[in-house]
## 1
Amino acid sequence: MVNKMQKQKIADWGNYPVVEAETVRFNQAEQLRVALGEPGEVIAYGNGRSYGDASLQKRVIMTRSFRSFLSFDSASGVVCCESGALLAELLEAFVPRGWFLPVSPGTKFVTLGGAVAADIHGKNHHGEGSFGAHVVSLEVMRADGSIVRCSREEYPEFFALTIGGMGLSGVILNVTLQLKAIESAWVRQQTIRASRLSELMDAFESFDEWTYSVAWVDTLAGGDALGRGMLMRGEHATVEQVQGHSTFSAASQRKLNVPFFLPNGLLNRGTMMAFNSVYYHQNQKPVKERLVHYESFFYPLDAIGNWNRIYGRRGFMQYQFVLPRVTGRVAVEAILKKIQASGLGSFLAVLKLFGEQESFISFPMAGYTLALDFPVCFEVFKLMKELDAMVADWGGRLYLAKDARMDEAMFAKTYPHADDFREAIALLNGGSTRFSSLLSNRLGIT
Amino acid sequence: MERILIIGATSDMGQAFAQACALQGSSIMLAARNGDVLDRMAKDLRARTQVAVSTHAFDALDMEQHEVFYQDLPERPDGVICFVGLLGDAAACQQSFEVARRVLDTNLTGVVSILDLVANEFEKRGRGWIVGVSSVAGDRGRAPRYHYGCAKAGLNAYLSGLRQRLFKSGVFVMNVKPGYCRTKMVAGWNLPNTMTSEPEEVARVILKGIHRKQETLYVRWMWRWIMWLIRVLPECIFKRLKI
Ligand SMILES: Cc1cc2nc3c(=O)[nH]c(=O)nc-3n(C[C@H](O)[C@H](O)[C@H](O)COP(=O)(O)OP(=O)(O)OC[C@H]3O[C@@H](n4cnc5c(N)ncnc54)[C@H](O)[C@@H]3O)c2cc1C
Ligand SMILES: NC(=O)c1ccc[n+]([C@@H]2O[C@H](COP(=O)([O-])OP(=O)(O)OC[C@H]3O[C@@H](n4cnc5c(N)ncnc54)[C@H](OP(=O)(O)O)[C@@H]3O)[C@@H](O)[C@H]2O)c1
């Protein structure tokens, strides 16, 4: 594989926006250095699982072929891989040997580079922090082709800037990561039905000792049932708990696929309401416990390939915000009401309570985060703009990895280190090759 | 635990196949001409899995060395697969026999040279599997790249003959015709998505095929029918077509 220049249409997961870009592939650092020798604006593209425009630019560096595993220490569980390796590949290799990802997003089809650059969070954020907390060290190629090896000890500022830095400090070449020991591939899952928002939030706050927790919210239910939903908690099962199952068996390979874009508008209020109602009522008992495979606990959506196509070719957007714990209760309720009043429903709504996080530019902070999906249409932009004002007023912010539309002022107002981040990136971008994305241009970072 | 010898291991398909085999617990012998890439692959497989991995220099064109290469392997393989192939520049093949010969030797003579050694051993031993990676291009000679096509056609005939010969010894022979696959061989080509496979997919399909003892494998199903159509077209029509 030599760096072949190709023009093609690319997009991230929401299929909005779609842009024509020159793509460069590489599978050796030297090839990347040559590609970076060409002046202009460029950004790394991992597996395109961010929703908006974080990995889009007129010229993008595709990292997916740069995916060798470099080392693994089976005593400590520390692994070093090139950045294009997918989390799915780590699971495939290490779950059978008793190691798990320290942090899992809702899909395993994310590259290591993307996981670091967005400093992703999982269902265990309240206890174990974000992905970056488990990164031991990184090697990053800067725009001038030099390689910086950084960690909490070596070039700590550069390290902090790269974790959550959305690819703007350079191309992450390899990631050294601390994995987490597990006894089985199974998860003890408890599902709790909550008939309104306050019940859901009580459940979150009273059960911090569970390693994993996340809730699905029915955004279409109103009145007394506003914010009803289902809380899911989980714990890696021990060897004793999985008796009868083979400890590290792989999940079944069966996979559905959405082969093409479905018509725009298929997913409308009516179909979503029907689905949500069925989903909510499937759980007859208020509390249910069972043993499930990690695939179905962590990655239920991965069982349907290209599910983003159900939104149609026009695409969809995710709106994910976090609000401080103190204002969260009132604010989430107000936001749900606002969405209902707008008449636009969100099919998937996921709620989670984050723990404390100290970081330079990452998204998470202690409080409630809610992620909502909306098909792209004119009214949605208007609604989101109104939600922005509410989120900002209550001291919250939006997740850059999900964003395709917030404006510069919103970013500056809600990210406490926005100015410092912009200055640092400007300093790094001194040469003729510069890292920038459509996202960073829009937010005035570059 | 199976021991698998992968010849032409540094091909994109070979790399994906090696990974799939290692993940299912087979020990792997990697043979190819590019030592640096082989070392990188071995390191990767050793980090991903706990299987034994060794690397070996192999040049399909250096046929005199094939016997030594094969005898010097650290273990006797249970299965052998060969990914070696060279598409070559079609125009250059037409102009220079030197170039054409390189295409013929890489795709056919060199492969026959090594697989004959494997076949003799497996026949004596009475078990094992041999997989040759040929191409749909060998199903009927066509104006673009018929040097490549004729070598692959030769390989098809070779594998079919080998299968008949080894059948009674219990040795299984498979012929893989990948159709389009996104690898460095076709980098930069504009290929139709539905007809183009990924190397990982090829690896998966081959492993499944070995398990099910499929003799001729088209990676994506439509290729079997497309090639059937191309084969049955009468010559008087075929020669006028641009396909
Ligand atoms: C179904 C689904 C569920 C999700 N669930 C979660 C979740 O629970 N929690 C969560 O935090 N996120 C979640 N996400 C978002 C996803 O984890 C992030 O957007 C992640 O960054 C995507 O990684 P990627 O490899 O696809 O990178 P891309 O989307 O291609 O890129 C994302 C960012 O990383 C940068 N980048 C990628 N590779 C490199 C590199 N090698 N060097 C430097 N920069 C790089 C890009 O420039 C870009 O800024 C989810 C996404 C989907 C589709
Ligand atoms: N890609 C397709 O669409 C397609 C379609 C039909 C059939 N095929 C066949 O599939 C097989 C694998 O190809 P691929 O697509 O994975 O492409 P590839 O990566 O280019 O693989 C070809 C391999 O052959 C090796 N090779 C060439 N000459 C050699 C020699 N003299 N000695 C040893 N090895 C030599 C190359 O070695 P280096 O790595 O050192 O270069 C390379 O690894 C080939 O037989 C090809 O003909 C491919």
Note: The mean pLDDT of chain A is 92.
## 2
Amino acid sequence: MTTPSMDPDGSGRTGRVAAIRSATRARTAPLTVPLAAAGAALTVAGSLTPWATFFFGYPGKVTLTGFPGGARLYTLLLAVGLLLVVARIAGRRRAVLACALGIVAISVGNLLAIASSGGGLGAVAYGAWLTVAGGVLGALAGDAVREPADSERNLRWGRLWVWAPLEILLIALVLGGLLVAIVIGLKINESSAFVSYLAFLGFAAAAAVALGAGTLVSYVSERHRTVTLAAAAITAAAFPFTQGGDSYWIRVAASIGVFAAAAIGLNIVVGLAGLLDLGYVAFFGVGAYVSALLSNATFTTVHVHVPFGAVIVLGALTSAFFGVIIGAPTLRLRGDYLAIVTLGFGEIFRIVANNWDGLTRGPNGISGVPNINANGFDFGQPHTVFGIVLPGFANYYFLELLLVAGVMVIFANLNRSRIGRAWVAIREDELAARAMGINTVALKLLAFAMGAFLAGAAGTVNAHVTTQVSPDSYTFLESALLLSAVVLGGMGTLPGAVLGSTLLFVIPEKLRTFQDKRLLLFGLALILMMRFRPEGLIASRRRQRELLSEESGADAMSQPGQVARA
Amino acid sequence: MTPMLEVRDLVVAYGAIEAVKGISLQVQAGDVVTLIGGNGAGKTTTLRTLSGLLRPVAGQVLFEGERIDRVPAHEIVRRGIAHSPEGRRIFPRMTIEENLELGAYSRRGKTAEIRDTIDRVYALFPMLGERRGQPAGTLSGGEQQMLAVGRALMSQPRLIMLDEPSMGLSPIMMQKIFSTLVELKGQGTTILLVEQNAQAALSLADRGYVIETGRIVLEDNGPALLGNELVRKAYLGEE
Ligand SMILES: Nc1ncnc2c1ncn2[C@@H]1O[C@H](COP(=O)(O)OP(=O)(O)O)[C@@H](O)[C@H]1O
Ligand SMILES: [Mg+2]
């Protein structure tokens, strides 16, 4: 702030960036490279030596020398990454820090776990200490490096690739890598090993993003939109084939699909139109009850069997109807009142479902919901495709892929349409939006009803996946979880909602021991997100652009001062 | 000749508190009319009522001979009144061009014509055209005000209402904005201008109204009000 920019139109930017870069190089060159290299070397040594003094069942063969398995493999890989980055360290602060902090996090975490399950620090061998020390050295080195302006690097990546086949290959590699990473992760059984794996993926991804991989991928996928979407669909469809006939994770994936479709619906309400809906899961519940009641379940109160194709539409419409009923009187209210009213509606739905014995069978709920049977195709039956057995849940998984794809198409079109633009305007400044001639009440009602419609559709499928519906599946906690998925993944983006749902579903499944603390952990994760990455894991382009401009604006304010000091 | 806009005994209240206590005014087509008054006099309340953002307790508003005091805001824009709100209120996260496109929200489907209007706004404010892809939040206060005026023009209004366009601007920026208003006036645009800066507003206006605590206390043509002793004392800081 000492020297405010005298350059309001930014024309002198290039020159300034060059000045910053040379200043950075001059300042960081002498000490950081040897420091980081030493950190990497220590980490390599630590990763190849024992982390535990005796064997007591800790995963990863940690007592052996020269065998980097489990956590030690991850620190070794991060050390290699550190070495590669260090060769041209100038301006790569965040990449160095991501590798080094990853090493620290994984080694410290495992060190503590070894100490606690091995009966004290005596169980910890020197390799673990070496690795911690290596990570700390690397982090110190990283801290001394300065990051170049974001926009400069983005432009560099944006212009870089021009040969289409290579770009498409990159898309395929990224998606394939993602699938492999997921499949590997699901095969890891011990909690500590899984946490190490997640930490490794997280820090490695952070390093890659810091080097511009995120920008590169988003530029490339933007240039080949259709190819990317098709490849993503193929990758998602390939998942059941990787499970060797085992249904456990396919079942989880089916639940994620339902959850993701609902989360995208919520994303329309919250992320696009900016309406905070705290009772959203009730709409999901309406769809689920409609579906359970109309499919002639074992314990039903209405003995009819409507074909599923009609049920999904009916469930969605009923849900949208309730959306309008709730929304019409409340959407004139200010945001915080709306949150309270929707919270109330969520509770009313649960209480009605809990007490209307004649229709909902009260707390028992409706169980024995049969599998979907569409024109003789029984969703409960396994099928063999390409010689690989796909369990029954795979049918639901594919159905949900279709549902999510459909919801995505709706969302993407809305986002680009005049309506979507109006929603964003309402979110940013409702009074100004009204002054522009936007019928804000009608548009908010539309958002609310669309969100309810999608949640209802997802709910109808969910009744069949879980084979039963009961009031306790639709509590405020579930609404809060859906909202967390949206915020965690990135408000206003599609991949964000899917990623958020996946994380919120897979992590608790993997970390059974943490299950009772899962809300605490999500709460912590959300607080950290708000502090360090408020735009969510996957930022929407509008938010990215906004943050980018804020950052370069901040650059213009602060960098000249730093140059003067340096 | 019937005036383009006629306000009769308008009363507007926030709850039990009346902010506008029965004002009447007229705007003839092609004129620049200014409503001047101090802080809290009721200028913003009046404009918001005219554009349908607030509902009056009593009184009538007629636009081109038709009652509009019960017409919703989005319909009023469609009938030809644009309102550039106090404090600019551009959409900071949208680009300049997206802001302008939203200004044309009421003209659905006329993409080519909207394009023409955007180009006309860029001709009026070349700075906006040069930075069309930039988020509006990164503009300076004066540039944001230009965008706010440009955005209001996008609905192709017959009457444009501006709420304190000079608020918080440097003298140079203020001069730029007012010279644009002169240009608009020259093109025959009807303007209702709310200002605290009486000097600038009155030298531009064909007609002026002075509002104090919700009532019109003076009305005359622009030059006459500029010479008025009361106005000179209260609003031009002369003894
Ligand atoms: N939203 C509101 N709620 C209650 N009172 C308000 C509100 N907005 C303005 N007022 C009051 O109405 C009066 C007129 O305000 P306003 O129209 O904003 O005046 P001006 O634009 O001339 O400064 C003031 O006394 C102000 O305090
Ligand atoms: Mg005002």
Note: The CA atoms of residues 44 and 77 of chain A lie 9 Å apart.
